[in-house]
Every structure is written in C-alpha cells, then in structure tokens.
Design brief:
By secondary structure, this protein is of the alpha+beta class. The protein has ten helices and seven strands.
Length: 340
C-alpha cells in the first residue's frame, strides 16, 4: 500500500466532521436492528423511518448552523430555548401530517409527543457532539500556538547561548594571546570543533545524549588545558547511554559558570568537579567549584547563563526536572536531575 495513502485515510477518518457521520451511522444501525421486531410491512416501516431521518437531519443542522450561533453561543438562552422548541414542534407536526396522509393507525397526540421528543434528543446529541468537536479544535489550536511560541522562545534562548559561549571563550583567547601562550593554537583548533557542533548539530529540539556528553567532555578538556595547573579539574561520567536524547547545549552555561567563577580561597587550590550519572532515562549532573568570596553575589545570580538554563528547563522539561543550587562560604554547587 502506498505509504502516503495511510496518513490521508487517517486524516479523513479523524476529521472532526467525520464524527457526525459516525453518529448518524450508529443511529441508522440501531434502526436496522429493530427491523426484526417490526409488525408492519417493511416498505411502510422504511418509508416512515426515511421521513423521520429527513426531519432529524433538518432539525439537527438548522439548530447547529443557525440557532446555536445566533442565540446559544451569544448567551441569549431564552431566545434559543423558544426557537429550539418551535423548530422541533413544527418538524413533529410535519411528521404527524405524514401519518395522517398515510392513514396510519395511531393516536395523533401520542405520535406528536414521541416524534417531538425523538427530534429534540437527536438535535441535542449532535449539539453535544459539536460542542466537543469545537472544544478539542480550540484546544488543539491553543496547543499549536503554545508550541510555536515555545519553539520561538527556545530559538531565542539558543541564540543567546551561542554568542555568550563565544564571548567567554574569546576573552580566554585574548588573555592567552596577551601572555603569548604556546597553548593558543591548539586551543583555537579545539574551540573550532566545539563551535562546529553548536552551529551545525544542534538544530533539533533534542540531540543524542552521547554527542552532547562528548561535547561537554571536550569543553572541560579545553578548560583544563587553558587553566593548566591553576585549577584542579575533574570530570566523571558514569552509566550506560542507550539512545537517550537531551536538549542541545542545555548544560553548557552550568559548566561555563563553574569555570568562570572558580577561584582559590585561603591557601587551597581552586577546583572544578563534575559528575555525570545516567541510569536509563534518569540524568544527573553535579558541578561543584571553589569560589572567590568576592564573586559570591555574581555566582548566585548566575547572569545570562543560569537564567537561560532555568527557562529552557521550564519549556522542555516542565515537572520533569529538579535544579538545586547550593552555596556555602567557599563552595558553589549545582545539582540537576532530569527525566529524559
């Protein structure tokens, strides 16, 4: 079967107004099941039910197309109720007139009451169905609009991240260039690889976790080379990666924050410690760094970096993450847990 045909069939079957056809089909099947109990000639019965369904269709769609939009949806409830009753009383009268013309042996008052009730119930069933259709269409449009707004905001956040990342790295290169460091050429090459990843492999909302961790390991190694012996850098990755996906570049600001503000206190050596742990779809990141007390306020606020992370977490992992920021006199720590 043509692969393009299946989505087309699915779209037709799930089209909102296809549910009108399903309800009419259910009503017709119910009538056909009653045929075994009919004690009149079948042609007479089918003719009577044909008139009945014609009047039902008329009542249903006059109600949906004219009465409901004019009165019900405008909250003119009295006008709606009165016009609804008049419509179905007129249709029931036509039905009774059919019995008279066919010389049907029935009590006209009872026939009118039964037909009036049947017409109203059918119209109300379709009104309820249409209400549900309109509701789900409205929710779908609202969800689509929200998704588009979220995507736009995510792109804006990613747009903030790349210049921020580049700006910080350029500052590092400048410092090394001023000192005429021999490490600068290799650092530029490594940075080019990182930048290539940020530009060309992060267009999707999610990327393979393996690639993102590889990027982070290279980023930490770049910082280790740059900082040399001035900062003790350790990174551990524990767990098995089996096809998990994660938002690209989500964690970079956390790493950037640690290296940017790490500083020695007293006579100790400055440090950055990173621990990544993956268990099935549970992802855990812990970053601890020593800090210079003079940078305390700046670390706590986090600047663009932490604010960016918080917003992206809310958009992509709402109710599926925990972000804990810990700050003591000499150590700043971040613990992040995400259900991927």
């Amino acid at each position: 079967m043509n692969r393009n045909l299946l989505p087309s069939i699915k779209n037709i079957l799930l089209h909102p107004y296809a549910f009108h056809a399903y309800l009419w089909l259910a009503l017709i099947i119910n009538e056909l099941l009653d045929l075994q109990y009919v004690d009149v000639h079948i042609s007479n019965y089918l003719g009577n039910r044909g008139i009945a369904f014609s009047l039902m269709v008329t009542g249903v769609y006059i109600n949906l197309i004219f009465l409901a939009p004019l009165f019900l949806y405008q909250k003119k409830y009295i006008y709606y109720i009165v016009s609804f009753l008049i419509l179905h009383a007129a249709l029931a009268g036509i039905w009774v007139q059919w019995h008279i013309l066919q010389h049907t042996n029935c009590i006209l008052f009872l026939a009118f009451r039964n037909h009036f009730s049947e017409l109203m119930v059918t119209s109300l069933q379709f009104l309820a169905l249409q209400y549900l259709i309109n509701y789900f269409q409205s929710e779908r449009r609202k969800q689509k609009l929200e998704n588009e707004q979220n995507l736009l905001q995510l792109n804006q956040l990613k747009g903030q991240l790349n210049p921020h990342f580049l700006f910080n790295t350029m500052n590092n290169f400048y410092a090394l260039a001023v000192g005429k460091s021999d490490k600068l050429p290799n650092l530029i090459l490594q940075h080019a690889d990182l930048l290539r990843y940020t530009l060309y492999e992060t267009e999707s909302l999610k990327v393979p976790l393996e690639k993102e961790i590889e990027f982070l390991v290279n980023y930490v190694e770049l910082e280790r080379i740059r900082l040399e012996d001035s900062v003790d850098v350790k990174m551990e990755v524990d767990g098995v990666i089996t096809g998990q996906m994660i938002a690209p570049l989500l964690l970079v600001p956390l790493f950037d924050n640690a290296f940017k503000y790490c500083g020695a206190y007293s006579d100790s050596v400055a440090f950055v410690q990173v621990a990544l742990k993956i268990h099935l779809h549970h992802f855990q990141l812990k970053i601890y760094n020593s800090k210079d007390p003079h940078h305390s306020a700046r670390i706590g606020s986090g600047g663009i970096g932490l604010a960016n992370v918080r917003k992206r977490l809310e958009l992509l992992y709402k109710n599926q993450y925990e972000l804990d920021i810990q700050e003591t006199g000499n150590i700043f720590g971040i613990e992040l847990n995400i259900q991927l």
